[in-house]
Amino acid sequence: MYEIGYRCMDCNVQVMGTKPEFKCMKCGGSLEVDYDYEKMKSAFVPMQFRYMPPTHMKYYFALPLARPHNAITMGEGGTPLISLGGNVLAKLEGVNPTGAFKDRGSAVEISKAVELGRKEVVCASTGNMGASIAAYAAKAGVKAVIFTPEFAEPVKLKQMKYYGAKIIRGGKTYTEAMLKSIEYAKNSGAYLTGDYPYRLEGQKTVAYEIADQLNFDIPDNIIIPVGNGTLFYATFKAFNEMVHLGIVRKVPRLIAVQAAGCAPIVSAFRKKAHKITPVKTPKTIASAINCDAPVDGAGVLKALYSTKGEAVAVSDQESVRAKLELAHKGVYAEVSSAAAYAGYLKLRPGGKSVIILTGIGFKDKY
Known about the structure:
Elements: E1 3-8, E2 14-16, E3 31-35, H1 37-43, H2 46-51, E4 81-85, E5 88-92, H3 102-115, E6 120-124, H4 128-140, E7 143-148, H5 154-163, E8 166-169, H6 174-188, E9 191-192, H7 197-203, H8 205-213, E10 221-225, H9 230-245, E11 253-259, H10 264-270, H11 297-306, E12 310-314, H12 316-327, H13 335-347, E13 353-357
Parallel strand pairs: 5-13, 6-7, 6-9, 7-8, 10-11, 10-13, 11-12
Antiparallel strand pairs: 1-2, 1-3, 4-5
Helix pairs in contact: 3-4, 3-7, 4-5, 7-9, 8-9, 9-11, 10-11, 12-13
C-alpha cells in the first residue's frame, strides 16, 4: 500500500497520515487519497500486469488497502466492454454483483472498515450505493444502516432489505439524507461510507479496466452519467495515475451527463465556474443521479477543464428513449445509466467513445 495521506480537490491542501478523513479541515472540500507515486512506480511490473486478466483486484497497487489479499470482494469488476456499433463502446457495469458500478467502491470501503475493526457502517444513498454497501457489509458480517431520500426506487430498497440493512428514510433530497448519515456516524461511532475518498479509490478500477481491455489504445472520449461525480473524478485520477506509471500516454476527454432536472455541474460548467450551486428543487426520474449538491462537484469541474471535456444535460424523455435504443442493441440499462448514452446521442463527439453504463435496467421501473 502506497497511501501517504489525503489531498483536497478544492484547495489542494495535503493531509499526511492514513487515519480515515472525509472532508478537508481547511475548506470543507472533498478529499482524495494521496500516494507515494514514485514507490508505486518502482513496484509496478508492466509485463506481469499486462498478462493478468482485468478484474477489480488486479489493480491492488493503486488501492489504499493494507492487506489486499484479505479484501472483502465478490468478484466485482472485469465487466464487459462491448461495441454499440461504429466507434462507440459500452462498459457494462450492471454486470457487477449488485447490478451497479458501486461495488468497486464498496469493496474498498468495507475492506477498510474491516481493517479498522468496525462492526457497523452507515451511508446515504439514492439506491445503488446503499444496496451495494448492504451486500458487502453482509459479506463481511458488518451491520449496515442506510439513509435514503424519499424518491429512492422501491426495488433498490427491497434489495437493501434482503441483504439485511436497516433502512431509514432521510428527507426529500440526497443532501438531507447525507447530513443525517453523517450525524448518525458521529453519534453512534459507525464507520461512514459513501462518496468519500476510499470509494473514489475503488471506483478508479473501471478506468484501469477500460485501458486494459483496449490494449492501452486510449479512446478519444469517455462519457459518464454524473450524480455526486465520484466516478467521474475517479476516472480522471486513474488515467493520470496510468500516465505516471507509464501504462498509457494520455488522458482521454471526459464528458459528464446529467439529468436536466438536476444538473448543477452542467450549469457551473456553462458559467466556467469552479464551484457548484446546489439545485433547490431537483426533479428527475433518473434517481441514481438525482444529487442536488454533488459531493465531488469541484473535482468534476477540475477534470472537465483539464481534459477539455464537455458537460451536457438530457431530459428524462431522452434518457428513456436511450434506454429503449440500448435495449434494441441487447443492452438493458437503468434510466440513470442510459442518460450517458442519451448524452452521446446529443453531442455525437468525434473519434472513439466509451460510454460507462453504470447500472442494470432492473434497477428502476421505467
